[in-house]
Amino acid sequence: MDKLIIEGPVKLNGEVEISRAKNAYLPILAAVLLNDKPIHLKNLPELRDIKTMIKLLSNLGVEVTTNGNVTTFNAKNLNSHEATYDLVKTMRASIFTLGPLLTRLKKAKVSLPGGCAIGTRPIDLHLSNLEKLGAKINLEAGYVEATCEGGLEGNILALAFPSVGATENLMMAAVFANGKTIIENAAKEPEIDDLANFLNAMGAKITGIGTSSIIVEGVDELHEVEYEAIGDRIEAATYIMAGLMTQSELKVSKFNPHHLDFVIEILKDMGAKFEVGEDYVKTLPCELTAAKIDTAPFPGFPTDAQAQMIALMTQAKGVSIVAEHIFENRFMHVPELNRLGAKISLQGNTAVIEGGTPLKAAPVMCTDLRASAALVLAALCAEGKTTIDRVYHLERGYEKLAEKLSKLDVKIEKVNS
Ligand code: EPZ
Fold first, then answer.
1. How confident is the model at residue 229 (pLDDT cuts 50, 70, 90)?
2. Ligand 1 atom at minimal distance to the Cα of residue 163
3. Which atom of ligand 1 approaches the CA of 121 most closely?
4. Whose CA is closest to 125, among 177, 133, 117?
5. pTM exceeding 0.70
6. Which candidate, 236, 205, 209, places its Cα nearest to that of 221?
7. What residue's CA is closest to ligand 1, atom 8?
8. Which residue out of 118, 144, 157, 164 has the highest number of ligand 1 atoms within 8 Å of its CB and is therefore the one to mutate?
9. Which helix (H) or strand (E) covers residue 151, if one does?
10. Cα–Cα distance between 202 and 299 in angstroms, integer?
11. Considering all CA atoms of the chain, what is the largest pairwise distance in Å, rounded to the nearest integer?
């Protein structure tokens, strides 16, 4: 397994360009299955999860060709309706293929995604609401088997929780449903808006984008489209926090700062200083003080930036408190951060961080994607060479991380252990 060795403390210099959002492109790639005309996607990030989703599409019969920074998908002749366990087990987002396959082919067989390190992550909201659209669902031998002979029927769906994945799966399933579907209490993350904009660009009829009531009028066919997803707000938040923790002037560009309004306000309350432009945020050296945050669905504080925020809080004066409300086991970065000298205690779903503690290099291990990012941030501040093991977790969501950091004057080395 590969390791990263990062020498700290370090000041970051220059500008980092944010890649296109993993959590926008994963459902958009699944939506490729809806269309029998060519789809051209620009600047797909080179990430393990994106590669896995593309492999899944190819296994279903989608033709994939790349020309420079444009990848063309042709799903005219699908030769299977089955997303098999061997791929689904490596990436939960495979479940996004359920809605598109079902509504296009009137049948789908998708392996139940396992849980993952951060939680059991059930899909009950996906399945119960597909049934409300008229699907017959059968759970058999670890697979979801869904059929809808006469096609799906539009209906009013009320999500008990504004689930990102359920909103996306149901929005895609409703594209070819007969009549109108309303998704009440829909998730409002920017990646949902991006998927809806992509579907409309192909000829779908979705309104209420950005609100918690999404309306989908069923259509019969879609047309060719070229599309580029939004910048990755979680990657951006990670680099912004890196800039603040290292007291650097760091320009983080090519994303929409409004996608981080809440995070930026909380950081300002902590004393952070920024220059904010149309498509960038520049951090300025500042003294950080403690804060209290609760993770929440958008527009609240994103759970995907919680681990990175805890790393930052180890460098903020005072005692910070972070409560995690979205996933049941998303503090695995805490014991690893404490190995670097942080003083963090856990009480149920709440972490208490005693800030202003100097960090010292030590060998640490990645446990999940965002926990890994927190370790990288801490390593930038820790005195000495920190070795971070199992970096394959990082490669799921951070494109060219070592390259981007070394361009910012970080002494970082990737070694194969
Ligand atoms: C998406 O996961 C993201 N993944 C996650 O990002 C992100 O943390 C999460 O949304 C919340 O923002 C992708 O977009 C590929 P949810 P998803 O359905 O769709 C419960 C990362 O680091 N729930 O909103 O799985 C669930 O257990 C990843 O990039 C049900 O109970 O999130 C969880 O507690 C990690 N039943 C909560 O809702 C369901 O049917 C949020 O899940 C569905 C969800």
1. very high
2. 24
3. 27
4. 133
5. yes
6. 205
7. 304
8. 164
9. none
10. 27
11. 64
